[in-house]
Design goal:
Blueprint lengths: L6 H4 L3 H22 L1 H10 L20 H10 L14 E6 L9 E5 H18 L7 E4 L10 H9 L3 E4 L5 H10 L4 E4 L1 H10 L14 E4 L8 H11 L2 E8 L3 E6 L6 E3 L4 E7 L4 E2 L7 E6 L10 E2 L14 E3 L2 E3 L1 H8 L5 E9 L9 E6 L6 H19 L4 E5 L14 E3 L2
Parallel strand pairs: 3-4, 3-5, 5-6, 6-7, 16-19, 17-18
Antiparallel strand pairs: 1-2, 7-8, 8-9, 10-11, 10-12, 12-13, 14-15, 16-17
Helix pairs in contact: 2-3, 5-6, 8-9, 10-11
Length: about 425
């Protein structure tokens, strides 16, 4: 049976939900007008004030917020831009996006957001997953500026769940460690979770017979892909639940014990599903663009934020691919390839099948046969560091002979999706 975190709020009528969302949206809008120069300009240009928002439909009078605008604000007013509502010194935690275009977005969290609002958000997840103080959670990843898993771990701690950190270990050691600590909950990207699941029997570990009963995945659309979810649950002998969010807007969606789809946290967010060309809501069952507004965030709340509109022309949408929890455009990687004099301008990206456990492969050409091997290895090492730092994936780099990669007279087709 699903346990609710805020039963009175979660079971209220749709009318009550909307009345509350409207009130909080107007309050947040006034808060931004008072504290955020970025939003003060946007509202003035759109000629809209909180008094103009009398019903939820009026929210569409408020302009969208795009990532490109936030990046520009950050560039002009470092380090965080002029969209946050707090000064830099008020930040308790700082995170940054994966920087698909090579420019990560920095986001501050003050004490209230980190210790109260993030805890409140993730408490819905904790209850939805059926986790309590008797559980032992294993986190098999390295900590850094990427927000993934920080918030969930912090909420687990406040719910008195035992935390076993698994950073700084090999995959084999992590598997042995989670079994040794009798972990009941494991978190990771679907790709890495599948990799661990396939590695376990090779080193004599029977995961389905371990104590693990819950696997939480995020960063990739794995838990909502039936075949991927099935694969994870077979490998681990545990239930697989989804966790959805982003650094800028924070976490807004989760899956519960019923496993009947993703819950949007409408208590802390105002979601809209729109046809971006017209700005109108899409009918039920049709595809639209998800637009979210923070109703409770204090540090850097965003109103009507377009989650998938990256800003500018980065490439065709069907050229973009999702790997290791990151949206990647080939042009972002090309930008780094062309900075390396030892590489030619030709390349290929080989994207492994979802859940294969393989790395993204980047195939480059030597600029000249005469380049010494030692110099080439140094160039590959530096290029790999750039990709890891800016795009947040660790690739496998292959070097082809000069002139061996295919040339194109028209539009180059450098993206190869493996099946």
């Amino acid at each position: 049976m699903v346990k609710m975190w805020r039963p009175l709020l979660e079971t209220q009528s749709r009318k009550a939900y909307e009345k509350r969302q409207l009130r909080l949206f107007k309050r947040q809008m006034q808060y931004l007008m008072d504290r955020s120069p970025f939003y003060r300009r946007k509202f003035a240009e759109a000629k809209v004030t909180p008094r103009d928002i009398r019903k939820l439909e009026d929210v569409r009078r408020v302009p969208f917020t795009t990532k490109q605008e936030l990046l520009q604000s950050q560039e002009e007013h470092p380090p965080f831009g002029d969209f946050p509502c707090i000064p830099p010194e008020a930040a308790t935690r700082v995170f940054q996006t994966s920087g698909t275009t090579g420019i990560p977005l920095k986001v501050p969290y003050n004490k209230r957001d980190w210790f109260k609002n993030c805890f409140e958000q993730f408490s819905y997840y904790v209850c939805g997953y059926g986790i309590d103080h008797r559980d032992v959670a294993f986190f098999p990843f390295m900590y850094g500026l990427f927000i993934a898993w920080w918030g969930l771990q912090a909420a687990f701690e406040q719910h008195e769940v035992t935390i076993v950190p698994g950073g700084g270990q090999s995959s084999e050691t992590r598997l042995r460690s989670l079994v040794d600590w009798n972990a009941t909950v494991v978190c990771g990207t679907p790709t890495y979770i599948i990799f661990l699941g396939e590695l376990a029997p090779k080193i004599g570990i029977d995961l389905p017979r371990s104590k693990v009963r819950v696997v939480v995945t995020a960063g990739e659309p794995g838990a909502q892909v039936p075949a991927t979810k099935k694969r994870i649950e077979e490998l681990w002998g545990a239930k697989n639940y989804d966790d959805i969010g982003s650094t800028e807007i924070t976490n807004f969606g989760f899956e519960c014990l019923a496993q009947q789809g993703t819950h949007l946290n409408e208590i802390m967010f105002l979601p809209e599903l729109l046809d971006i060309k017209t700005g109108a809501p899409v009918p039920p069952g049709q595809v639209g663009e998800l637009v979210l507004s923070n109703l409770c965030c204090e540090s850097a709340p965003l109103l009507r934020y377009l989650l998938r509109l990256e800003g500018g022309v980065l490439g065709r949408a069907d050229d973009m691919f999702y790997f290791g929890g990151v949206n990647i455009f080939p042009s972002a990687i090309e930008n780094f390839i062309r900075r390396v004099p030892e590489f030619s301008t030709e390349y290929q990206l080989l994207v492994p099948a979802q859940g294969s456990g393989k790395r993204l492969r980047i195939r480059v050409e030597k600029a000249a046969e005469s380049i010494p091997d030692e110099r080439m290895q140094t160039a590959i090492k530096g290029f790999t560091k750039d990709i890891v730092y800016h795009i947040k994936v660790t690739p496998e780099v292959e070097v082809a002979a000069p002139g061996s990669l295919q040339r194109f007279e028209g539009k180059a087709r450098r993206l190869i999706r493996e099946t």
